[in-house]
Structures are given as structure tokens and as C-alpha cells.
Amino acid sequence: MDSARRYIPVAALLAAVVAVQVATALTGTAYYLTQLTMAAYYSLVVIGLCVLMGYAGQISLGHAGFFAIGGYLAAGLTTHNLAGLKNHALVEFLARSGLLLSRQDSYGATLLTVQPWVACIIAVLTAGSIAFAIGGPVLKLKGHYLAMATLGFGIIIFRIVLGSAYFGEADGISGVPGFRLLPGLEVSGDFGARIQNYYIAWGLLAIGLTLLLNLIHSRVGRALRAIHGAEEAAGAMGVDSARYKLYIFVLSAVFAATAGVFVTHYNGGIGPSEAGVMKSVRYVAIVAVGGMANLWGALLMGIVLNVLSLRGVFGTYDDAVFGSILITIMLFAPQGILRLGLGRRLRVLFARERK
Amino acid sequence: MNSTLFCQYLFAGLTYGIIYAIVAIGFNIIYNTTGIINFAQGEFVMLGGMIAISLHAHMPLLPAIVLAVLLTMAIGGLIEIFFIRWLQSPSVLRMIIITIGLSILTREAALHIWGSSVRSLPYFIGNEITSIKVFSSRVSPQVFLVVGVCSVMVAALSLFFKYSSLGREMRACAANRRAAILCGINPRNMVTLSFMLSAGIGAVAGCVMSPITYSQYDMGPSLAIKGFTVAILGGLGNSMAAVAAGLLLGIIESFSISVLPLAFQDAIATSILLLILFVRPHGLFGSSAAARLKDF
After folding, report:
1. Domains held by chain A: number
2. Cβ neighbours of residue A72 under 8 Å, at least 6 residues apart?
């Protein structure tokens, strides 16, 4: 009963997704779908971070790093030509197991690259393992130390992708092929596949959201809220807080990396700006505006702010807008704008008018 | 590595190291009076340099620098008054996000005022090619100026905190806020003062380093992360140790160029930061017995 009620908002979300697509088709504004698709992927990062920040109470200023690990590994593995290494034992083994993909580039030369789904699994697993490895020592820290440590992690990833030839240095990686999920269902920036990609992105977001909603309403979720409230008290009640924090850290890193993989295939490339510190700050800003421990708020703000930003509404003031949002929310509404009780205040206002 | 190259690396390391130490001391001053890490610390250095460069177009070098430092101090004070002073016991997470937001806004404002071009003050003595022979290598007099000015500043600050009544009041607030209030000290004013002081020393560093390292609107974050690394290396709040740690980091960084590509230079400081946070969050020089009583 209770769990069934939890799915009603998700179903409503899916209905809204379909309604938006139909509306854009009817009004001839299908170009909005591109930004909506991107926004859905970025929101996947945001809801993952929301569980980490709002429910487990751990700030991360390094989530663009996990996004970049996912995106860059997917891009690198699916674009770097292994044809020259054909006789290498490892390449031969991979080719024989069907993990490699042979195709022709635009000049007719043979390209031998890793299959996108294999690259996707490698990328997400790598991000998860890195999160697991650094999560242990990082999550022991608190407050400023935690913020700086995660920020430092993000900077290291940024410097690595900017400094290594394999990841294309300042140019990033382009020419990433599409990612065929199922026959006839491909993540790519093809003009004709726009509607299909819109549904893939929102489908993925809905799956991620359902997962997290179930998580925060489970035993784990209650443990997390206990940790957030008072870690010592939670520990005294037998909650293994270190393990739960690590678990959520890895989970949110996996969310970020998955989004990175899909965005990279959708855009056909990735650049170092995706790994930048400003991106991490932006994800934190969106979670803060949504109200920290509020998945739906984070999702809503993730979609609204990302669509506005991607459509270029803020122009050259893009970063400044996110900075102002951060400060304003933290100064005046640290619980997020959805918790200001606007509805109640409006009702009071109207009640007075009636008198 | 021959001795000439060794000396060059050493002096480059000292120059950067002392700048990192100044940024770290800026962190420490604010941390000691408020318990806040001001993520916008690097922006004070940028502002000092940029304002001085703009003013230098209209006036001689020395007044331009003095005015730039005063202006940056005023900006530091105003930031505290508008964004921090009136908050009632804010959480650490809230303060982190606010100071990050401030750093973004300052940087964006600088971008819109000065553009993204790289600027610099002229060399204070001579020009780019003036040099003094030290052992077998040639060093610009500006290097000595940077090291000299920063050393004097560190000495003056420690005298200020030790002997002047204002400095003692600030330390009293850091040690025990309630006891300080009972002694008639207004801790809020001390916090504003600490922001002005740390903005001021950042601005001085930004001016003296400008001829060598140039000034650009986005130089703040990398300085801040290195300054924080140094502050942690020395033990947060301990300014004398920060100088030693700053020189150490500067020298490690400059010698790393001979082994690693330049592109990875920033990653070194950050790796050291992560390492020290994991292994000795109380710093190289702090006692581990005292650290057990603290939360990291």
C-alpha cells in the first residue's frame, strides 16, 4: 500500500514526460527535446548527489570528477583505434570474445574499438571502484576537511584529463559513436533519433529515481537519516555509519559516471570543462536549491536550472547566476526554496484579503 | 641536475612557497576567529593584483599598491558585513557553500570588469632582464622583493597578534568567545577585522607577485587550494608552521617540473593535500595527542 503510493509520483512524472513530448511535437518546438534530454542526464548526477548530501549529510565537491571518469573512459575506449595493435595478445583475446567493434571511419579506414556497452561497464565500474577506494579515507573527514578533500579529488581528475594525450588534452575527445542499447534503440546525437533519445534519458532518470526512492524509504534510508541527525547516536544504536556513508558515496559516483557515459554518447564527445570544479559546484548548488534532503526538489531544480542554462538564458552570466543562487539560498532559505512554505503564506495572504 | 639549475628551481620554489604561505596565513586568521574556511581567500590575492594594475594606469606604483590593498581590505570587510556577520550560528556546510558562492561571484565580477586577459604590474626595480647573480644562477630582484615583503608581513603579523591590544583581543575571541565577550570585546567586530586583515595580506601578496606570476581573473581557486594544502600541512591555525609548510610545498612543486610534465604541477599539490588529510589531518608539526581531541 505504502510502496504503491510511492510510485504514483513516478508515474505522474512519466505521464508529464510523454505530455511534454506530445506538446513539443504538436507545437513544432521539438528542438527543446535536446536540452530536456541533456537536463535529464545531468539530473541523474544531481539526484545521486542529493542522497549523499541531503540524506547521508556528506558534501562532495568532486562529482564532476566521477562524471568525467565515466564520460572520458567511455569516449576513450570507443574511439581509440586498436587496429594497430591487432596482433597483441590482449587485443586478439578481446576481439575473439566479441568485445571489440570493427567499423569504417569517414575515410574508409578500418577502426577497431571497444564495444560501447563494454566501455560503459568498464567506465562505471572504474568510477565505482575509485569511489570505493578513496571513499574510505575521505569520508572519515568532516566539514571543511571533507569539502577540500573532495574538491582536491575533482581537481586531480581535471588535471589528468587536461594533461594526458589519451584523453585529448584541452580538446577533449570527439567522434564518439552511438551506444546501441537494444536493436533499434541507440543513444546518439542523430537528428532523427531525437525523440527516441529523449525517452531513453527520461527512462534512465525514472529508473534511477525509483531506485533512490526505494533506498531512502528502506532500512538503509532510515539509517542514513539517523547518521545525518547524530552520528554518535546512530552508532550507539548499532548503525555502521562508515559503511553506509561509503555505500552511498559509491552509489552516487556510479550515478554520476552513468550520466557521464550517456551524455558522452549523446553529444558524440566530451571536453575538459565537464570535469571542471565549476561543474561540481553547480551540482551542489542545484541540490542546495532543491532543499538538500528532498529528492523531488533536487530533480525539479535540476531540470529547470539545467534547461535554462543549456538554452543559454543566462548568457555570459551563467556561472555568476549559479553563484548568486548558492549564496541567496544559503543566506535566506537554507532548507531550499520548496520549504519556504510559499503555499501556506499565499493562503494566509488570500484569507486576509477576503476579510 | 647542475648547480645553476638547482638554484633556479630553489628560488622559484621559494617565491611561490612564500606566496602559498601568505594565502595559508589568510586562511588561518579567519579560521582562528570564526572557525570558517574562507573559500574566497584566493580571490583576495587576485583582487589586490588586478586593482593595483588598473590604478597604476593613473598613478605611480607605490600609491597604486597602497590604495589597492586598502580597497581590497574594504571589500573583505564588506563581504563579511553583508554575508556572514548576521548569520546565527550557521552550520559548516552552509558556510562552505556561502564562501564558495562568494568566490564564484568575485571571480565573475572580475571577469566582467577586467576580461580574461593576463595582466601584470611592471617590475618594481629594473625590468624583466635585470638580475642579481647568486652563486652560479641569475635571479630577478623582484624575487627578493616578494620573499622580503612577505617575510616582513609574517613577522609584523606575529608581533601584532602577540603584543598589540587589538591582536590580543582577536586571539581572545579565537580562544574563548564567551570569555572574550565578558571582557568587553565585541567578537563580531573582531571577525570583520580578521576578514579585512586576511584580505589585506592577500592583496599585498597579489601585488608583489604580479610582475613574476602575472594576474588573471581565475587565479584564485588554484591559489586557494594550495594555500589550504599549506595550512593543513602546517596544522590549521598555526601561522608560523604555515611558512615552513609553504616553502616546502613551493620547493617540491618547482623541483617536480624536472620529473613530471608541467600540466600535472597542480595535481601534485592536490595529491599532497589528499595524502596529508588521510594520514595526518592535524599537520606535519601538530601533536597527534592534541589531534585526538579534535574533529576532522
Report:
1. 1
2. A123, A161, A167, A173, A260, A264, A270, A275
Query: Whole-model pTM above 0.90?
Result: no
Cβ–Cβ below 8 Å for B225 and A143: no
Q: Chain A partners of B91 at a C-beta cutoff of 8 Å?
A: 334
**d(CA B87, nearest CA chain A) in Å:** 8
Residues of B in contact with A326 (CB under 8 A): 97-98, 100-101, 104
- The interface pTM score, or ipTM, of the predicted complex is 0.85
Name the one residue in this structure whose C-alpha cell is 588586478. Answer: B50
A 30-69 residues inside an 8 A Cβ radius of B: 59, 61
CATH for A281: 1.10.3470
Q: Which residue has the higher pLDDT, A181 or B227?
A: B227
Q: Min CA distance, B209 vs chain A (Å)?
A: 24
- Overall fold of domain B3-291: ABC transporter involved in vitamin B12 uptake, BtuC (1.10.3470)
pLDDT, residue A212, reads 93
Domain residues of chain B, as ranges? 3-291
Of B37, B221, B270, the CB nearest to A144: B37
> Cβ B261–A145 below 8 Å, yes or no?
no
Question: pLDDT (tens digit, 9 = 90+) per residue, A56-94?
Answer: 888 899 999 999 999 999 999 888 877 777 777 777 777
**Measured distance CA(A96)–CA(A326) in Å, rounded:** 52
A72 is in which domain, residue-wise? 2-354
